[in-house]
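Batch manifest, entry 17 of 40.
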Amino acid sequence: MPTRSTKNTFSLLAALGVVVLFYLKTASLVPLKAATSSACGTTTSGLATTSKLSHFDIIQKRTYKKAIELADTTRTRFTLDGWKRGSGGLDDADRRVLGDLYFNANSVFEYGLGESTKIAAYTGVPRYAGVDSDATWVAQARDSANMDHFRFHFADIGETIAWGNPKNNTLQKIQYDYQVAPLVLEHEPFDVYLVDGRYRVACACVSFLHAMKHGADMSKVRVGTHDNGREEYHVLEQVADVVVRNKKLWVYILKEGTTEEDLFKIWRRHANTQGR
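Output type: C-alpha cells
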C-alpha cells in the first residue's frame, strides 16, 4: 500500500510530466537553432532570430557604400571673381551663401539642378546627389559639373512645361518620384539640402525627415529653399528657424522640439503644391 510520501512523489512526477509535454509542444512552434552566422548576415541565438539579408540586400549595401565614399576632391573656396553667372534665378548674395555652405559641407543634396550644382562642383563637395524633372536638364547639369562622383536622378513626373512643372499635376506617381524616391536611395543624411525645384515646402519637410530618420545631428543640418521670399513658403517657420534670410534664398535649421509629426502635417498639406 503506497505511503503518503510515495503519493507525493507520484504527484510531483506527474506535474513535471505535464510541464515537459507543454514545453515540447510549444518549442516545436519555434525551432531552436544553434548560434550561427554567415556571409548573408544570418544570426540565431536560442529562441531569438534575426532575418537574414537577401543577396539583393548584400549587393545593395556593398554598392551603396562604395557609391557614397567621400571623394578625394580639391576643396576650393567660392568666389565671384571670374564666375560665369547663370540665369536660373540665383543672385550674388545667394551664390555667396551657397558657396560658403557647400565649401564647409561634406555632403549636399539638391532638389533642382543648375548653377547651384556648378557651385557644388567648384567647391569640390565630396558627396553629392541631386534630382530634376527634366531629363535633358539632368544630363546638362551632369556634363557641366564634370564630377564623376556626383550622382544625378531623373524624377519622372510626366510631361513637363516651364520650369520643370508637370503638365498634369494629378498623376499618381508625382509625389513619390519627385519628393521621396531620390532620398529613399540615400541611407546616410546630408549636411546640406537645397530645395530649388518643384513642391518646395513638401521637399523641405522631406529633407528634414530624411536627416532625422538617418540619425543626423539636426543642429548641424541646413535646408535651403530658394525663392523663399514668397509668402506660401513661410509656413516652414513653424518648424524651423531662419539662419540666412536673403531676398530669395533662405536657410533653415530645425527648431528645437520639432517632431517628425510636425513636419509630416505640413508635408501633407503641401504635398501637391507645385511652387515655382
